[in-house]
Amino acid sequence: MSKTRKSDSNFLVQGSILAVASIISRIIGLIYRIPLKSIMGDIGNDYYGTAMEIYSILLLISSYSLPVAVSKLVSTRVARGERKNAYRIFKGALVFALVTGTAAGLLVYYGAGFITTYIVNTPLSIFALRELSITLLVVAILGVMRGFFQGMGTMMPSAFSQLIEQIVNAIFSIWCAYNLYQYGAKIGAVLGNPATYAEAYGASGGTRGTTIGALAALAVVLFTFIAYRSTYTKKFEKDRKNAKTESYGRIFSVLLLTILPVLLSTTIYNITSFLDTSVFKQIADYQGYKPTEYSTMWGIYVGEYKVLTNVPIAIASSLSASSVPSLSMAFAARDISETKREIAYAIRFIMIVAIPCAVGMGVLASPILQLLFQDSREMPAHMMQIGAVSIIFYSLSTLSNGILQGINRMNIPVKNAVITLILHMGVLAALMLGLDLNIYAVVWANAFFSFLMCILNGFAIKKYLHYRQEFKRTFMVPAICAAVMGGAVYGIYQLLITTVKINAIATLASIMIGACVYFILMIMLRGLREKELTHFPMGGLIIRIAKKMHFM
């Protein structure tokens, strides 16, 4: 067994820690968006979602790539025995974060009016956007801290701080949204437009919760760092005798050279949401839709559809982030067979989760929306049914981006994202102008984007690693099991809704039974083996249950 295989930073195990934290965080995020939506409504969700899209792009540009870059550089130097240089990377990255985070924050605060009015055609989202200016600096520093811990081989500080961040965010988002909604209604009453200003200020309350959550997470990682600083200092003293101390000038240049490709790929990969906001609203306005109509449609899209689909995609994001340091180690050690083995495990893990989630959300689209958002309208249900397949494609394309970055092919995701983005925007415009699909055009275009990224990244991984993807157990078996599960879920739901006639009971019961059916079939068809289950969250418990029931 290779040293890489024995390594504590095995990215599937560490990725599982982040994946569990991400799932819990997304569930918390899903739960608090329910009262948030009831406070703000669809139009308030539009203001909130538009501000968050702009914030996300500036976050990408200023600091999103920092955790990946820092974890990669720190892990590489730790693997070479250059622990002092790893610590210098961390300190240099903190300075970088202070500069970029401050610059991005100032841009948001003073440029919010121009961006919201002339670029995204949503002027009243200015209040929500300005609330996020300080958050950009906080998250930049937070990203460096998390990247350092990940590079040192532990995901626990990142995972725990993520949970704290989301819990605090949820509590304060609801509280601030409610209070500022009331305040906005009073201002609107004076100005003669109470509803719109109430929703705009309610959205700003939601984004204020984001800032408070980020501050809480930063406090957690700072406390952890201070608590374990002496331990890390002792490790850094055990440097190789021939290790050369890197100058801060070289560190900044290495940081930039590492960050820029990651920055370009992640920015282009994620800028689609921001561009979709602008293009959709501009074309809808040109087509004669009223502002309240396209604002309502976009509010449903960002407040319900994206919130639900992002839950399973969070697992891919976690594995992608955790794959970079360990793949860098394996690749730097020229252990290609281990690198391929880890990639195979990660892709299989993602597909085992993403495929049944896509099927389940497609089959139970309307019941889930009724359960969570008390929304029985056709539009959000149709969005879910059409876009459920993108859960699979986004999960895989996100992971493949991380894999390519981990094997030092950082420019490839950039090129692929540029090609895909251009085609995506063409498809979106054609579907809106040619077929008048309004918000459904956005759903279709995003499914196309994620699918094409999967294809291009897959070809790149095959080319540079001579990696041959196993198909049967990774894709075919989960697809068969998920199809059977989908049929079972649909039948159970229809039976219960006609007998019990309570949507919550019918939906939850069908989901739980469907999950059991899926995992039993996966074990019986050997889509999951005992050795693989040991790497999964709660894998030991699943093995014991499967053996007791004689499925394994």
Can you walk through the features of this model?
There is one protein chain. The chain is mostly helical and 552 residues long. Helices cover 86% and strands 0% of the residues. The chain is built from 21 helices and no strands. Helix 2 (11-64) crosses helix 4. The longest helix has 54 residues, at 11-64. The relative contact order is 0.11.
Give a quick precis of the structure.
The protein has helices at residues 3-6, 11-64, 66-79, 83-119, 126-130, 133-151, 156-191, 194-227, 229-237, 248-286, 291-332, 336-363, 365-373, 378-387, 390-406, 411-435, 439-465, 472-499, 503-524, 530-533, 539-548.
Short descriptors:
globular, 552 residues, disordered N terminus, mainly alpha
Topology of helices and strands:
Elements: H1 3-6, H2 11-64, H3 66-79, H4 83-119, H5 126-130, H6 133-151, H7 156-191, H8 194-227, H9 229-237, H10 248-286, H11 291-332, H12 336-363, H13 365-373, H14 378-387, H15 390-406, H16 411-435, H17 439-465, H18 472-499, H19 503-524, H20 530-533, H21 539-548
Helix pairs in contact: 2-4, 2-6, 2-7, 2-8, 2-10, 2-11, 3-4, 3-6, 3-10, 3-11, 4-6, 4-10, 6-8, 7-8, 10-11, 10-16, 11-12, 11-14, 11-15, 12-15, 12-18, 14-17, 15-17, 16-17, 18-19
Number of strands: 0
Estimated helix fraction: over 70%
Radius of gyration: 23 Å
Total number of helices: 21
Could you tell me how far the N terminus lies from the C terminus, measured between alpha carbons in angstroms?
Answer: 26 Å
